[in-house]
Design the sequence.
């Protein structure tokens, strides 16, 4: 389980995260939603120690993470950042194998449990078909699924993913969310930043709604994705379709 | 590409390197026969032949391989750190700073007093420049800051080198500076090896120790850090590894460009693009390139001995162009 207690993060003079408390329990998929610039990515980066917190603390299974050794931390928490840039034309399989780096010492070769983790991750992200092709030759969406497989291959106790569905076709948006759900059901605590409110509503057990660095709402998707919150935070008016999904109706210009 | 192809390529390159080094012993101005070289190697036969083989040819061959290896290794590590196939040791300013150190020693006439002065100045300036670079780039430097600071240092060192040539007190020291900047292994002895060798070896150790972190950096810095890579440590290892290896190399041979850029590209078709697995083959390829270029220097007939830096570029550039055409599909 990973938890943040009253953490604040600033980027330069800008307060990106303000006094946020949150937790993700094993087996849970927790979504972080909110408009651009709400502080979702900064929150994940603080959980990963990629930015220092100004105040508050991050607890992994009840212990403060500040003093953890890098490889211990890397084994415990896997991270998929936004974007799909990869520097070199490595094969998809080689890239996914990097997920095993935290589990190996310097000159060790892949063990059979590493190979199993890599194969399982390739299958879960539906990228087996191009496992041996250089990732630079893949489309953006294909590459982003390979990178998801890389994060899954770590088999960490906590998995944090930032906009994993951003460049994906609808079919693979669903397979990606199903892969996250399956990962959670094996006991992993999964945190995911999403912009698609319906995917968030359908696949997440709980949501945090972020706005101007604060977590303004927390609860089940039904509680968080209410008309009032969406109007206040996203400045949109919505309708609901037959299955209760959000249909964005109009832009609200002035919200009190 | 598999680990096996890295291993096979390294073995192949090592075999080629040893062959070239051995062949190089038999080539030169003095027309020594095969038997005479073998005799001289074990210290038998004509005194002059022993001197030619043991004190003239052997040191320059060993130094050539070490300098080339340093350049190839530093080039591969810096390309991996900066995630940029266009980078080479000159990007972080280490070559030009080492060059400036040597030029200062020659300009002020210190060089005449002892053979160790030029290497000592070159290494000293390279290390000082890297300390400035790390200070400039700051505690949590981005790659971009590192490159910009490197380019600034490099430009400053080049400007000061030009200034020294501009203000040169007499034509002889200007000539010395220019010839030194063209790069050469002529008239080097094992003395230079004992001075610069330890620095190069220390640099190799630092650079090779980045092999584990560099592949993770392909994913970007955040993802690499989440895999347990200590970014700050990798940066320092690469920057100071390059300063020791290339500073030591430039100290001995003068400025030899191009090897650091080309060597990694030469071996990518053999071992693939994995920046960690590229290090050793790239070092071997750099060593091979410089030993071959030095053979060229000593066997191409002409009035003046060609300078090594000139020959490495003349040999390397056409091959590099061919390689670009051959591999442009995978370079996107």
Sequence:
């Amino acid at each position: 389980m990973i938890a943040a207690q009253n953490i604040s993060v600033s980027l330069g003079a800008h307060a990106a995260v303000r006094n946020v408390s949150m937790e993700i329990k094993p087996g849970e998929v927790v979504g972080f939603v909110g408009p651009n610039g709400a502080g979702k990515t900064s929150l994940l980066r603080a959980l990963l120690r990629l930015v220092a917190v100004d105040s508050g603390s991050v607890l992994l299974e009840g212990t403060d993470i500040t003093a953890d050794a890098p490889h211990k931390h890397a084994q415990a928490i896997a991270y998929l950042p936004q974007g799909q840039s990869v520097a070199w034309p490595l094969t998809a399989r080689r890239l996914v194998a990097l997920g095993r780096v935290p589990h190996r010492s310097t000159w060790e070769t892949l063990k059979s449990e590493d190979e199993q983790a890599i194969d399982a991750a390739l299958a879960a992200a539906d990228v087996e078909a191009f496992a041996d092709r250089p990732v630079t030759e893949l489309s953006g969406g294909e590459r982003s699924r390979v990178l998801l497989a890389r994060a899954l291959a770590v088999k960490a106790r906590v998995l944090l993913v930032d906009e994993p569905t951003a460049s994906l076709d609808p079919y693979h948006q669903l397979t990606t969310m199903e892969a996250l759900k399956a990962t959670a059901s094996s006991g992993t605590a999964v945190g995911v930043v999403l912009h698609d409110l319906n995917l968030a509503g359908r696949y997440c057990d709980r949501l945090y709604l972020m706005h101007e660095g604060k977590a303004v709402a927390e609860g089940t998707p039904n509680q968080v994705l209410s008309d009032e919150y969406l109007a206040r935070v996203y400045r949109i008016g919505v309708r609901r379709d037959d299955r209760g999904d959000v249909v964005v109706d109009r832009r609200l210009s002035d919200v009190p | 590409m598999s680990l096996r192809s890295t291993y096979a390529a390294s073995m192949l390159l090592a075999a080629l390197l040893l062959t070239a080094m051995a062949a190089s012993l038999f080539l030169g101005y003095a027309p020594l026969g095969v038997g005479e070289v073998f005799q001289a190697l074990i210290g038998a036969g004509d005194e002059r032949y022993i001197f030619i083989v043991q004190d003239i040819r052997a040191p320059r061959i060993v130094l050539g391989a070490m300098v080339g290896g340093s350049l190839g290794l530093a080039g591969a590590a810096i390309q991996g750190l900066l995630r940029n196939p266009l980078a080479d040791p000159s990007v972080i300013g280490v070559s030009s700073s080492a060059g400036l150190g040597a030029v200062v020693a020659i300009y002020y006439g210190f060089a005449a007093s002892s053979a160790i002065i030029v290497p000592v100045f070159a290494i000293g300036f390279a290390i000082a420049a890297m300390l400035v670079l790390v200070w400039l780039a700051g505690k949590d430097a981005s790659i971009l800051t590192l490159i910009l600071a490197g380019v600034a240092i490099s430009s400053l060192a080049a400007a000061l080198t030009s200034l020294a040539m501009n203000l040169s007190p007499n034509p002889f020291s200007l000539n010395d500076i220019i010839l030194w900047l063209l790069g050469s292994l002529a008239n080097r002895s094992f003395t230079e090896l004992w001075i610069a060798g330890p620095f190069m070896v220390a640099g190799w150790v630092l650079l090779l120790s980045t092999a584990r972190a560099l592949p993770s950096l392909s994913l970007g810095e955040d993802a690499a850090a989440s895999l347990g890579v200590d970014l700050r440590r990798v940066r320092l290892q690469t920057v100071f590894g390059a300063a020791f290896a290339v500073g030591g190399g430039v100290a001995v041979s003068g400025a030899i460009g191009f090897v650091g850029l080309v060597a990694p590209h030469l071996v990518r078709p053999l071992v693939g693009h994995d920046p960690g697995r590229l290090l050793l083959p790239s070092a071997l390829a750099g060593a091979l390139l410089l030993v071959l270029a030095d053979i060229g220097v000593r066997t191409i007939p002409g009035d003046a001995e060609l300078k090594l830096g000139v020959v490495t570029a003349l040999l390397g550039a056409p091959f590099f162009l061919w390689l670009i055409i051959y591999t442009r599909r995978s370079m996107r």
